[in-house]
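Form 7-S
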Amino acid sequence: MTHRDHIPVVIVGGGQAGLSVSYYLTQQGLDHVVLERHEKFHSWRVNRWDSFCLVTPNWQCRLPGFPYRGDDPDGFMVKEEITDYLDAFADTFAPPIVEHCEVTRIAKRPGGGYLVDTSQGNYSTDQVVIATGGYDNPIVPPYADQLDPSILQMHSVDYRRPDQMPEGATLIVGTGQSGVQLMEDLHLEARDVHLAVGPAPRSPRKYRGRDAIDWLYDMGHYEITIDKHPNPQHALTKTNHYMSGRDGGHEIDLRRFAAEGVSLYGSVSGMQGSTVEFLPDLEANLDDADASYLGIRTAIDAFIEKNGIDAPAEPPFEKLWRPEQEITQIDCEAAGITSILWAIGFRPNYGWIDVDVFDAQGRPQFHRGVCREDGFYFIGLGWLNTWGSGRFLGIDEDSRYLADAILAQSKQTLRTAS
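Output:
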């Protein structure tokens, strides 16, 4: 029989979510271990480009017992500052973490609890917290295999800086937060950039004297729970609004970049040889992004008026550019495109979890991270409870809630055993 060390609680994932739960379990004196397949905070250290920075203000960094204490609460930490902040948080309580330990299987244990197999030995445990996030498998569509192999293809997770890309133009596919920031990164280096624009919404940055996020926080948007959201399915599937924290923070209007020479197209629909095909949805996607942008401005205006707040006025919004026609096909060779940068997201990988906590589509099912299987939890996912879940702002509340649930379950296990 395989030897197994018994640990009451196993946390899988050594990022900010897993270590936040560990912080509260440490406070409660509950024995546990954190298993991390790389090193703690690996994604922040390794899977970010050189110019990466937060898009939410520093004041939203509120890890348990360790809120941001720097001198720029309204600024946006760059990558090195973020990892310094995370390391300093971990130093406050010395989490029981085992690094370079990959969990290969989790299954139910006969009689209760779980079996955890890893690359560094096996465990039995009463409770499991999955804190691996949703960024395991970079998404690249199947038709990418049909592209001329002379054209370099790279996913955003592997991008670091403009000089990685070969001479010539780059086509960036995707306009979520990563896609638009990588577009700007290349554009600022005077690289020839083409951008396939998807349906992602955009947000103002500064509006009427304050960051839009500050307004939205005061308006209660970060307190809305998924249970009380007017359209929870839309919230769960909606792409994050794009904007930037670079150089003090600014909004990103793709029309302005088009006017400055970035070539815009609609959503990519296929590839064959050196040909890339697009849907004729560029103008619709730009209009939808602007509608989101204007909706946020209108909501802020209403809040200001309702509360009698003295805030400076803003000039009306104007479209700086619009496409003269919808281009549905380009030849990369003719356009000088030598590389494709994919920025269309990730999919989680839960294939190593052999526990009945998923729906028919493979999505974890829980309420505030607590699954129907006793002692099984998820944390660090978007809308675990609120808009702030999965972000620095909401991780304290989420991890404290789970830690209390874990402690209650632990007491129940002890009562049952006795």
